[in-house]
Write a structure and sequence with these properties.
Blueprint lengths: L6 H12 L47 E2 L4 H5 L3 E10 L2 E10 L8 E6 L7 H9 L4 E2 L4 E2 L6 H14 L9 H5 L3 E2 L2 E3 L3 E10 L2 E10 L4 E8 L2 H5 L8 E2 L4 H4 L2 H10 L3 H17 L24 E2 L3 H6 L11 H8 L11 E4 L4 E2 L2 E2 L15 E7 L3 E8 L1 E8 L4 E2 L1 H15 L9 E15 L6 E12 L5 E5 L5 E5 L1
């Protein structure tokens, strides 16, 4: 069996499964193909929830302070800022009182992205890339208790149960995870599940290729059929992954293990490059450099390490049922009870990057295709190479339109915020007569193009959010135009 425990990843999966609950509005995106020292064309036509349409943000002619050169801290002058503004419009009192701390970065690129189409996926080519002539279809059920890859089974279940929720309705997470089987081959009108097995990296592997048509989402998973074969140790039939932060890394057996086996930064970079090449060259994914993350500094962890643990050692520590492991601290305590040779191989997991230009990519809380820009997945990397991966994605990165766009200063953005809302809120029906915005952060926002169906531009934007997290105002950081009001 192959078990993984990562609450963060689980949350990502759930968020991804909820994406696509509705369709967003259309926006005309300005021409962002500029160099850092050039002027920006800001003729942006906007159609928001308010139902208004303008050539640009109100008062845009007065917004001239484009900060164009150098890193973000140089453009803005300071990465910390206190936001303050109060005004009334359409009977609504708007108060902005927030403090923001943003990540510095040397570049603010802009990308054109497109929704994935089923025709973009050449299954025959992918299978040939992975398995060559050794590929065989798996048309019966897969069973993780009889030797099939548990992670392949679990990724098929993620798609299958999303289509057939009645099969897991009322079950706890542990009960859902305890389901052992998944269909190997399904062709239905709104989705398909195709699985193969064959030789990859001189080891028997299993491959899952799926597609869900409602959300244009592709599913891929590639893992060794028998985990022990990959590690050349047949005692390894369970892999447990968990986070290792500075505090946990100081525990005796963990500290000793890391001191002996921790991958060097150059090794980590090599593994990341290898994984990105695999996604591009064998799975035909269009991804930017840096798509896979090698650190988790934003969440307070240095690295995500995957430790491969002998099932006998786990049993010896008293864990007959893996679901008895409530959290990573319990598992860490078990290390003291395990014997030598418990740690079989050092490695780490890498996730698709949830940021661009050092800033997070905004996920529309309404769902819809915007949420899918994040994608989701895990890549299991070791000092040997890429052991396996799973991925769910519905966007292709088509083109980097600019390496480093200029942006407005804080004062101009604050003015744009007031001008945009003064013009727009007249047609918006808010339940409350007061809007208090208490959080502001820089993000990348996927602005839809009205000219090309399924095309978006990821642009730097300021996200203004109220205290109850149910109202978002998105202001274009480049030209001050209103991108969206979400409430």
């Amino acid at each position: 069996m192959f078990k993984k425990y990562s609450k963060r990843v689980l949350a990502m999966c759930l968020a991804l499964s909820l994406a696509g609950c509705g369709k967003g509005e259309s926006y005309t995106v300005a021409d962002y193909e500029v160099n850092a020292n050039e002027e920006v064309s800001a003729s942006t036509e906007i159609s928001s929830e308010a139902g208004t349409s303008t050539d640009s943000a109100s008062g845009a002619d007065e917004i001239t302070e484009l900060q164009s050169e150098g890193c973000l801290s140089k453009k803005l002058g300071d990465l910390s800022h206190d936001w303050a503004a109060s005004f009334s419009t359409a009977g609504i009192d708007v108060n902005l009182n927030a403090h923001s701390e943003i990540m510095d970065t040397d570049e603010l690129p802009v990308y054109r992205v497109s929704e994935l189409k089923e025709s973009d996926i050449n299954e025959e080519e992918i299978v040939k890339n992975i398995f060559g002539d050794s590929a065989k279809k798996i048309e019966g059920d897969l069973d993780k208790n009889t030797g099939d890859s548990a992670l392949v089974v679990e990724q098929i279940q993620h798609l299958y149960f999303g289509i057939h929720p009645e099969e897991v309705q009322g079950l706890s997470f542990e009960e859902q995870m305890a389901k052992n089987t998944a269909p190997g081959w399904v062709d239905e009108e709104n989705y398909h599940i195709h699985t193969y097995e064959g030789t990859y990296q001189n080891t028997e592997y299993q491959l899952f290729l799926g597609y869900e048509k409602s959300y244009n989402s592709a599913y891929i998973a590639l893992f060794p059929k028998y985990l022990g074969n990959y590690f050349n140790n047949q005692e390894i039939d369970t892999a447990v992954s968990f986070w290792v932060g500075n505090d946990l890394a100081e525990q005796g057996p963990i500290k000793e293990f890391l001191s002996q086996n921790k991958l060097q930064d150059s090794d980590v970079d090599d593994r990341i490059d290898e994984a990105e090449s695999l996604l591009r060259e064998k799975f035909n994914m269009k991804i930017p450099d840096g798509y896979l993350a090698d650190t988790m500094s934003d969440s307070g962890y240095d690295k995500m390490y995957t430790f491969y643990i002998n099932q006998k050692a786990l049993n010896g520590a008293g864990y007959k049922n893996m679901f008895e492991v409530e959290n990573i601290y319990d598992l860490m305590d078990a290390f003291d009870k395990m014997g030598e040779n418990t740690y079989m191989l050092d490695g780490f997991q890498s996730l698709p990057s949830y940021s661009l230009g050092g800033q997070e990519i905004f996920v529309d809380p309404r769902g819809g295709s915007n949420g899918g820009v994040y994608n989701g997945g895990e890549v299991y990397l070791t000092d040997e190479g890429v052991m396996g991966l799973w991925m769910v994605y519905n966007f292709q990165y088509e083109e980097k339109m600019s390496e480093n766009v200029p942006i407005l200063d804080y004062e101009s953005v604050t003015k744009a915020f007031e001008d945009d809302l003064t013009e727009t809120l007249t047609a918006v029906d808010f339940k409350n007569s007061t809007l208090n915005f208490e959080d502001v952060r820089m993000v990348y926002y996927p602005a839809k193009s009205p000219d090309v169906e399924g095309e978006m531009t990821l642009v730097p934007a300021w996200e203004f959010m109220n205290g109850t997290c149910d109202t978002f105002v998105m202001i274009n950081a480049v030209d001050g135009s209103l991108l969206d009001i979400i409430h």
